[in-house]
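hey so i finally got around to running the thing on that chain from the lab meeting. sorry it took forever, my laptop kept dying and i had to restart like 3 times. anyway pasting the input first so we r on the same page abt which one it is
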Amino acid sequence: MVLSGVKDEAAYKLAEKICVEMGQYFQIQDDYLDCYGNPETIGKIGTDIEDNKCSWMICTALQHASEAQKEVITANYGKKEEVHVHAIKALFKELELERVFLDYEAASHSALTSTIEEQTLLPKEVFTSLLVKIYKRQK
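ok and heres what got predicted. didnt touch it at all, straight out
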């Protein structure tokens, strides 16, 4: 924006807002794909559970989990053995995290699209071209 001569502070704030929201969506999507993505498609085997990552998946699980479910997380999250990974993935399924993500994805896409389309300070194509690349990506 600097190189193209944009000087309007409101344009910078708007670009920051859109980019932060898009970046958050991308990271949440990445966390989801780590758990549910096809390794052949995403090019890796997801290990966020085994690696004890503070991902959107586990943070969302903790927000929705009962005390008993939190005990399952404590007993299994961050452990490398397949039995522990399976217990966490079963809990994610029980908590319907796939649906929660898909709802988030739809809402995020809708909000970003509205913000991009309703603004008049910046070229829409810059943002819509990025959003098209990441919306419902599989890798």
